[in-house]
């Protein structure tokens, strides 16, 4: 096992940080690593906003499904899927005139462009995560940044082709976070297939969380009226209010992106 694999395999999300800043040169290494990530067409279809203003961090702690630790993170980076920069570049490069000469309508960023920009932004984000980890700095993704699109658009003066895809909190982990056990993952056979997609059968689904369900049954930790992990995850995550708000917010962002 080499050091890189070691860092990747030992990582866990960190949600409580020591009260000490990340030095500027260390932050720069994290950002440089992020910007070195692979990027579609070498276009860097993302932007990164370092959220330094404490009031903005306080707002995010509220608007991202009430997660107070965001306000306490020494480094908060917002990753935007960003086609605005390239579309602006096209405009100042005389692309409108070019299309007129060719008798073609000008093409604006569409759904595929958004997906590609999301890929770019997330790959850059994960590269920052691994770089930080290798420097002893913990991190946590905040997917809830996709909620409350209008509030985040106003907070960061986002133009229509800049979409908040993830927020990352960074900081030196507290001892309690270092001691916390790692989360488990599904077994490889449920995730990695050969040649074809394979839908899992009932027995395989039963096997995925068998251990956790047995533990929960013994310890009576499943909530009242919830019979298994599938029901628990459905109510706690999939059909929870934050998921519904995320879908509403993404729809609002998509209609801004696609507006004529
Ligand atoms: C896209 C994405 C969104 C996430 N959003 C949140 C979040 O809003 N709040 C949080 O505490 N953790 C969030 N996480 C962290 C996951 O909960 C965490 O990765 C998962 O439970 C596995 O734990 P581990 O990272 O410690 O292995 C997110 C992770 C990802 C990849």
Describe this structure in words.
By secondary structure, the chain is of the alpha+beta class. 51% of the residues lie in helices and 11% in strands. It has helices at residues 3-10, 24-35, 54-63, 69-72, 84-92, 95-102, 111-134, 149-155, 175-179, 202-208, 210-219, 229-238, 241-258, and strands spanning 46-50, 75-82, 138-142, 162-171. Strands 1-2-4-3 form a four-stranded antiparallel beta sheet, sandwiched between helices. The longest helix is centred in the middle third of the chain and has 24 residues, at 111-134.
Layout of SSEs?
Layout: H1 3-10, H2 24-35, E1 46-50, H3 54-63, H4 69-72, E2 75-82, H5 84-92, H6 95-102, H7 111-134, E3 138-142, H8 149-155, E4 162-171, H9 175-179, H10 202-208, H11 210-219, H12 229-238, H13 241-258
Antiparallel strand pairs: 1-2, 2-4, 3-4
Residues 12-13, 15, 67, 140-144, 166, 183 line the site of flavin mononucleotide.
Number of helices: 13
User: In angstroms, what is the radius of gyration?
Assistant: 21 Å
Low-confidence stretches: none
Judged by helices, strands and strand pairing, the structural class is: alpha+beta
Q: Which descriptor suits the 3D outline? A: globular
Could you estimate the helical fraction of the residues in percent?
40-55%
Oligomer: single chain
Main β-sheet, in a few words? 4 strands, antiparallel
Task: Give the number of DSSP strands.
Answer: 4
Average pLDDT level: 96
Strand order of the largest sheet: 1-2-4-3
N-to-C series of helices and strands: HHEHHEHHHEHEHHHHH
Q: How far is it from the N-terminal to the C-terminal residue, by CA?
A: 53 Å
Beta-strand residue percentage = 5-15%
* Distinct small molecules: flavin mononucleotide
């Amino acid at each position: 096992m080499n050091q890189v694999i070691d860092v990747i395999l030992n990582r866990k999300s960190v949600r409580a940080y020591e009260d000490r800043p990340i030095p500027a040169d260390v932050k720069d290494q994290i950002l440089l690593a992020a910007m070195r990530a692979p990027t579609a067409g070498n276009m860097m279809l993302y932007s990164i906003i370092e959220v330094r203003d404490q009031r903005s961090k306080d707002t995010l702690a509220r608007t991202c499904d009430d997660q107070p630790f965001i306000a306490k993170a020494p480094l908060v980076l917002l990753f935007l899927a960003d086609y605005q920069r390239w579309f602006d570049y096209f405009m100042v490069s005389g692309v409108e005139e070019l299309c007129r000469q060719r008798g073609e309508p000008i093409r604006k960023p569409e759904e595929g462009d958004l997906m590609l920009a999301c890929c770019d932004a997330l790959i850059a984000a994960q590269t920052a995560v691994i770089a930080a980890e290798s420097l002893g700095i913990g991190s946590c993704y905040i997917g809830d940044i996709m909620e409350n699109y209008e509030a985040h658009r106003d907070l960061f003066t986002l133009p229509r082709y800049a979409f908040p895809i993830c927020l990352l909190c960074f900081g030196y982990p507290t001892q309690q976070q270092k001691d916390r056990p790692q989360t488990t993952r599904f077994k490889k056979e449920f995730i990695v297939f050969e040649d074809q997609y394979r839908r899992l059968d009932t027995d395989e689904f039963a096997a995925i969380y068998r251990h956790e369900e047995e533990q929960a049954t013994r310890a009576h930790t499943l909530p009242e009226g919830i019979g298994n992990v599938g029901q628990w995850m459905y109510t706690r995550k999939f059909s929870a209010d934050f998921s519904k708000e995320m879908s509403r917010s993404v729809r609002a962002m998509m209609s801004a992106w696609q507006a004529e």
